[in-house]
Task: inverse folding
């Protein structure tokens, strides 16, 4: 009875929330996160007062906790309807169905990268291209998704080696879209070594974007991506210039693949992106799939080494931005979106329920359908159990696959061991396929999970920067969030 | 003390203060650094703790006193989480149901 009286006297009740110790270097070392994703950084004493119902109801922090849905006053304002609306916004991706459709038009490639995560076949190899019939079926699957906004991504191998297949798919989709009227974005993921005027004409006609890989300056890129003439860097940079000259500066973006050699050169990699005029860089660790796993002994590194690299690179990147050059780190931008806005970034890896299958479908060159790029990479390692079915089956049937059921049982972070207690879960995701690849178990153990180590490391670093960063750091982070340069950021308050 | 395994210690707690479900969550959360064997005998719960030693890793091994502090802190943190969970039981489901209803599902 005693505790009940205290609860009644306190005048407030708890709403579901989680907490996490960030570090011991700052007084506000406890991160509180509400179910809706709102957060507060508070001292440990306040956490205890909060739970024991000892808060001063006239204090500013009490009002903050009330406004951010950590507590409510029985008989007062009912917080559930507005919390439900916030929750719906944060999980809005669930209602859209698969929006990212990846077409693996060929496995053929001219590179022989040791770390390659997607597997490949020789450039002139036969039997590794998507057939015209499978391409037609796959194009039909796209429109069975309810999503009004669709991204069609072409991957390989090197997809430009199968340009006729790309042409067929785009033309089929465009013809269907005359009636459907969806918003469709096309992206070709390519080394850009096989660009031609014909390809650029077609890309211009259909508003196709390119995504390429640029691993840093020539010495790094060429070491990572061997070609017979040892000129992968020069050919990719030439391709970037050709795309920009024809389709505009922003028609090509780039991703960085980091080998252990790359970890020694964060500044050089960033300087290369500045020199090439990109406004975004993606610093991503090697994946555990495909050839990347089998050559791990030579090229791999621990996630803790990656996190050290990432923090160093981010500090340099912030100094570059403070100096007037806009270059955002794309994963940091996604995390900031998840932390600081009521919406999810929509990024497939940071979704819960998981993005594989529910947000993404992959149509492999052989007509098989997979829930994500990673699951078809596992196929190239001999694991075929994650196949949903064939492009000839309707989408509804593919999504009723036992694989989807399995992934869903392991793909809701809020219900997973470890994640269910983690204050970072509103901003993170579930990745059963990576856990299956690394631990042989789609649930996985968080204490041994690279996915968890990476996202814990980067998210806590973001919160520490939001808490401790000076004005210049805060401004750079806001510019990444809003995708505007510092000069274009609106100033708070009145201008004179 | 086992010289080949670094060290070993046992922390004993009362089930009324630290229920088994809390102790099990602590053992799970710290599994990357500490190996914790849990034994229950009536109200008494023993946590037999030793450092995790994985060959070829450069992870530093927590000392006996660091581990003691970490386990006690985790026991208290997870007890607090358990209290929050019990007090807000059913609200997450209520929230999810309201969110789905608002989406017409």
Result:
């Amino acid at each position: 009875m005693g505790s009940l009286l205290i609860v009644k006297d306190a005048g407030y009740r708890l709403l579901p929330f989680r907490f996490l110790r960030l570090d011991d270097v700052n007084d506000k070392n406890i991160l509180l996160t509400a179910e809706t994703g709102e957060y507060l950084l508070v001292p440990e004493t306040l956490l205890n007062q909060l739970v024991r119902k000892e808060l001063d109801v006239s204090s500013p922090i009490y009002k903050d906790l009330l406004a951010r849905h950590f507590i409510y006053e029985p008989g007062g304002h009912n917080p559930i309807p507005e919390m439900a609306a916030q929750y719906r916004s944060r999980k809005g991706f669930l209602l859209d169905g698969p929006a990212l459709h990846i077409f693996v038009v060929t496995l053929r490639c001219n590179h022989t990268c040791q770390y390659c995560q997607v597997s490949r076949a020789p450039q002139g190899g036969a039997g590794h291209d998507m057939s015209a019939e499978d391409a037609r079926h796959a194009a039909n699957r796209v429109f069975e998704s309810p999503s009004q906004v669709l991204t069609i991504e072409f991957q390989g191998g090197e997809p430009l080696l199968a340009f006729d297949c790309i042409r067929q798919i785009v033309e089929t989709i465009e013809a269907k879209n005359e009636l459907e009227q969806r918003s469709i974005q096309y992206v070709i993921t390519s080394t850009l070594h096989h660009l031609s005027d014909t390809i650029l004409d077609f890309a211009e006609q259909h508003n196709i974007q390119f995504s390429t890989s640029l691993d840093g300056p020539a010495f790094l890129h060429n070491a990572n991506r061997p070609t017979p003439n040892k000129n992968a860097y020069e050919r990719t940079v030439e391709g970037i210039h050709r795309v920009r000259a024809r389709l505009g500066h922003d028609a090509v973006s780039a991703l960085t693949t980091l080998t252990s050699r790359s970890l020694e050169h964060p500044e050089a990699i960033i300087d290369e992106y500045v020199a090439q005029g990109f406004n975004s860089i993606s610093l991503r660790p090697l994946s555990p799939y495909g050839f990347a796993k089998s050559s791990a002994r030579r090229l791999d590194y621990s996630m803790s080494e990656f996190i050290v690299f990432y923090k160093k690179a981010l500090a340099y990147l912030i100094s570059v931005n403070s100096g007037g050059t806009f270059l955002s780190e794309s994963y940091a931008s996604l995390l900031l979106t998840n932390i600081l806005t009521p919406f999810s970034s929509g990024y497939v890896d940071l979704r819960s329920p998981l993005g594989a299958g529910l947000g993404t479908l992959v149509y492999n060159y052989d007509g098989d359908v997979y829930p994500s790029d990673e699951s078809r990479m596992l196929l190239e390692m001999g694991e075929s159990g994650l196949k949903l079915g064939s492009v000839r089956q309707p989408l509804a049937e593919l999504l009723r696959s036992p694989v989807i059921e399995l992934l869903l049982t392991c793909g809701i972070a809020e219900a997973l061991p470890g994640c269910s207690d983690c204050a970072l879960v509103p901003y993170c995701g579930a990745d059963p396929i990576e856990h299956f690849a690394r631990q042989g178990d789609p649930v996985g153990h968080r204490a041994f999970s690279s996915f968890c180590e990476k996202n814990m490391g980067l998210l806590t670093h973001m919160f520490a920067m939001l808490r401790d960063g000076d004005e210049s750091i805060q401004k750079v982070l806001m510019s990444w969030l809003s995708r505007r340069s510092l000069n274009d950021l609106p100033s708070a308050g009145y201008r004179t | 003390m086992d010289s080949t395994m670094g060290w070993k210690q046992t922390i004993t707690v009362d089930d009324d203060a630290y229920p088994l479900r809390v102790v099990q969550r602590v053992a799970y959360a710290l599994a990357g650094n500490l190996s914790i064997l849990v034994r229950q005998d009536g109200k008494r719960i023993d946590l037999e703790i030793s450092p995790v030693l994985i060959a070829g890793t450069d992870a530093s091994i927590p000392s006996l006193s660091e581990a003691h502090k970490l386990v006690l802190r985790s026991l208290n943190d997870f007890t607090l989480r358990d209290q929050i969970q019990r007090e807000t039981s059913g609200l997450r489901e209520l929230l999810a149901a309201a969110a789905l209803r608002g989406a017409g599902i």
Q: What stands out?
A: The CA atoms of residues 1 and 7 of chain B lie 5 Å apart.
